[in-house]
Amino acid sequence: MSAVIETLGLRKVFGDHVAIESLDLNIERGDVFGLLGPNGAGKTTTIRMLTTLLAPSGGAARVCGFDVATQPSEVRRRIGYVMQTVAYRGLLTGRECVEIEAALYHLPRRDIPLRAEVVLEAVGMLPHADRRWTTYSGGMKKRLDLACGLLHWPEVLVLDEPSLGLDVQSRHNVWGYIRDRHVGGATVLLATNYLDEADRLCNKVAIIDRGSVVVQGSPSELKRAVGAEVVQVSTGEPERLRRAIEAERWVKKIIAGEHGDLHVYVEDASIALPAVMRLGLEHGINLKRMTYSQPSLDDVFLLHTGRELREVGAAS
Fold first, then answer.
1. Of 124, 165, 274, 305, whose CB is crowded by the most CB atoms within 10 A?
2. How many CB atoms lie within 10 A of CB 137?
3. Residue 293: how many other CB atoms lie within 10 Å
4. Are 82 and 149 in contact, with CB atoms under 8 Å apart?
5. pLDDT for position 260
6. Is 181 helix (H, G, I), strand (E, B) or coil?
């Protein structure tokens, strides 16, 4: 195993529940690698094994050349981990939070004040460093957690849903910090169920569903592999509409969504759109809404699983 992060047949079982089944990943130095999938897909379980917080039930995983099961201390020295949930920090100030974390990383005492200032500045929290944690907004708390994850300049930065629950401006700020760390040479492992986040930040993604990788590659490669434009039709009679259009020569594939939508994959949307409208009129089917787009990562997930990532994630 030569990659910065590599897993081979990685497995995790909780009682009778198989959370991760034979997971193979290969993450190279300098990658921003996304684990993309709905809630409950196994992203956090994978990350907890890679950060040595959970012992694998089978298979192997190495981080920076060290085995997560037999060399956990070496792994922890080389990673920064920002969890999905914001850590509770009581009545401490932001500066105190970071300095305590620095001591836990065993940074030299004389270096801690300067290092704390540097990472607080990096995430835009230095002006607020002496306010109590309890006065921070959700976005500020997340940025403080990011600062703590950067303290020892990790080779690998592991982020579990880093923008979960943040407003738009805070999300974009977090994205900026992730890009900065990537430019600074860190390898980033990012777990997310936000399609735009994976598309904007990641040079490679693995789409996970029910504990297994269903497809992986660069976002552009995966979207190109769909090989079609996508017409999405909303109707109260999706099965009737499906029967009406599935025999048409311009149709490549039809997949039903969970709310009466049909995703129709076609060679040329300019031909398909008027044809669908004509078929709706001929068969007396009310078309509530119709749109078309180039393939997205949601279409990639839909094609490989038969389900929509947005809907699965919202329901989990």
1. 305
2. 12
3. 12
4. yes
5. 72
6. helix
The closest of 213, 215, 191 to 34, measured between CA atoms, is: 191
The pTM for the full model equals: 0.80
Instruction: Single out the residue of 210, 207, 229, 237 nearest to residue 297, CA to CA.
Output: 207
Report the alpha-carbon distance of residue 289 to residue 233 in Å, rounded.
Answer: 6
261-266 and 287-293 strand pairing: unpaired
If we measure between CA atoms, which residue out of 185, 120, 186, 192 comes closest to residue 159? 192
Report all structural domains of the chain as residue ranges with CATH numbers, in order of start. Answer: 5-218 (3.40.50.300), 228-294 (3.30.70.100)
Residue 191, beta-bridge partner list: 35, 160
What is d(CA 177, CA 147) in angstroms, rounded to the nearest whole number? 10
Average pLDDT over the chain, rounded to whole?
88
Q: Is 54 helix (H, G, I), strand (E, B) or coil?
A: coil
Give phi and psi for 271, each to the nearest 5: -85, -40
List the single range of 62-71, 123-132, 251-260, 262-271 with lowest mean pLDDT.
251-260
